[in-house]
Amino acid sequence: xxxxxxxxxxxxxxxxxxxxxxxxxxxxxxxxxxxxxxxxxxxxxxxxxxxxxxxxxxxxxxxxxxxxxxxxxxxxxxxxxxxxxxxxxxxxxxxxxxxxxxxxxxxxxxxxxxxxxxxxxxxxxxxxxxxxxxxxxxxxxxxxxxxxxxxxxxxxxxxxxxxxxxxxxxxxxxxxxxxxxxxxxxxxxxxxxxxxxxxxxxxx
Length: 204
Description:
single chain, ligand-gated ion channel, Jelly Rolls, signal, 10% strand, globular
């Protein structure tokens, strides 16, 4: 009798877990469906051309696949600041592999936290122009998943995969001018380093 009772209890727990999973899955699908409907209505209201609509749909699909509709920033904003820092250090631990940082024996935690606090996850579709040749470099790009393509001044194309970093010139520039601007951004983009390549998405 005890064995039968235990078996029924485990079966009931299994059924309960399956119901919770299916409810969660159904809720996510509903959220995705509502999001797609809102995007379609917005594009129609703005009378976007079909090619632009296609790109928006593709970007939305990639973004949803990457985040499952969860806004990480909103989830973390109510957490204690020290816990937010720990989470960001875990999510963005690849930062310490950047060539400039790798030369440092030990990076100060406050510096790492300051960098991680400013990192934002973006999803790009194939053909997206991320950095432009000749334009001011105002960001660094860490490739977490997928591939990018760098095109130099001589039009030679170089594939970049996971773990690579683009825009390290900006970091070097900041280190060289740290005493001049004392941690603040320059008033105009003219003083920023200029890109010698262009970077675009290269992922199906």
